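Researcher: Re-running this chain for the archive, since the previous output was lost when a drive failed. Same request as before.
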Amino acid sequence: MATSLKRCLSTLDLTMMGVGGMVGSGLYVLTGTVAKDMVGPAVIISFLFAGIASLLAAFCYAEFGARIPKTGSAYMFTYVTVGEVWAFLIGWNVILENMIGGAAVARAWSGYLDSIFNHAIQNFTETHIMQWNVPFLAHYPDLLAAGILVVASFFISFGVQVSSYLNHIFSTISMVVIIFILVFGFVLAEPANWSQKEGGFAPFGLSGILAGSATCFYAFVGFDVIASSSEEAKNPQKAVPIATAISLGLAATAYILVSTVLTLMVPWHTLDPNSALADAFFRRGYSWAGVIVAIGSICAMNTVLLCNLFSLPRIVYAMAEDGLFFSIFARVNPVTKVPVNAILVFGFLMATMALIFDLEALVQFLSIGTLLAYTFVACSVIVLRFQPDKASSKGTASTSPNPNAEASPAPSESQTITEDSRVLKQYESFSDKLQLVERQTRERRGVGQLRAYWEPYLGKLLGDCEPGEVVAFCVVTLIVSSVSLCAVLEFGNNQLHLPLWSYTMLLVIFSLAYVLSMALICIHEPQTESKTFKVPLVPLTPGVSILINVFLMMKLSYLTWIRFTVWIAMGLFVYFGYGIWHSKEGMRELQPKDMAARYVVLPSGSLVETVQSVQPDGQVDTSAHHISPSTAPTSEDV
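Model: Regenerated structure tokens:
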């Protein structure tokens, strides 16, 4: 597929990006915080549960990243299956999440480095520069945090290969430090720290483990940088799923083993939440080891910063390319092949947030956009899996006077196509609001239709529905029942004070609605042929992911929901004030109806671009350009 970006990332590059996005400050800070305040040594189980829950969401991202190798991640996936408005809102929230996440990591990086020098940087800034006492703002401007973001943005603007090299360096140092922590930590391990004398393995019980899992889930949110990089991967169909699986497995293993070492080295109730690992080595008398851990922590935070600054501009770029955001951000530097304007502008905005906002004020606004994106991507997987193939693209179907014109390609096109296979995939516009289509073949039951076994029982009730219509309705029901079920579980006893009978009745009703929706989806025919990775056990895998994501959203504070509402309102203002008037999808509907263009992707991966002129008598003149897989990736060959 042709792209303005440079395809140069290998599977190793994507894997290192995924590891760098997940194994950051959470490994050095989150492990101690969760172990001391929420779970105890059972933080190991919490990370295991969180890793499994993250794997469900990662599966969904991997399928889309391989099937639709375009930058934009959750924004693009939502655009393909749900539509423009929802895609814009998802992209709008992911933009803020990345900005806040990058600023928060920069503040943590600054604070960690400052603590090594006994807060000399903070003291100098407050004494000789300035300080203020304003709610939600830091007590002093964090020039160090802002500076590291500006420097990182500068390096990333040099191109994707520079970003990849830097990530390789910092990730390698971080992994070497992690191996050192594991080896030396197990040497210093004392099993007595898990004994009943110290409170036992799970002092907070099952409820503490589940609460810890909800917090540990956010340690794995960085894997979506792999999907964001798919347009710059050499072979995204294979690289994206493999990199996602390997990076998530490595991150989960690192979190579980480091948590084990940490709680065996010192009693869990004596951990320092701010720098648990370094403090543990200091307390055991190995101050030099604490310095090594501190270096590893700073390198790990650098990788997270790079991943945030890498994925954020590409989401902005994808939205701008579709006309939904300001067109200046759609410009790609002809030399570096990266969206430099988006990188520098949003890097500067991120640096400004890190300069003036307090770390805690930033962190409390995190997560809701990410969880919402996970939910929509999971829904999109179900919708796309049961969506029937279209016989033609929008442009051709709407403009051909002769209904048989599409079924009989022009000779110049068929000469190129028939040498590969009968199966075709057609893509429609620049950012490929992809309608994956294949030639109609006679099957026992069509995709999205009721399975033949259930036809005698439910045919009269569901047989008249359009293919995929029942599945789409069930997905909506799945979301509503998940929200209702999680709301009752979270607020039913404490905030709402529901009587036991009504609490139980609501749980049963919403649980039945959830299960019934899943069952109705299962009795329809899914797509079976695919050349790329597919999520296993659909709709169970994305359905469970939706439930987990909604449950975690219900546990967020009311301040986060207020921020979410305000940001959504601002996003709608931008969309209806600018995006809807410059949308390429909207403009395409206004184009002259005597022309039709499409992309045809052969099963081998080759791309054929056809431009058809519809003649008055219904005939179609077609000119085709064949682009081989080796030349399609880069813009120089387009």
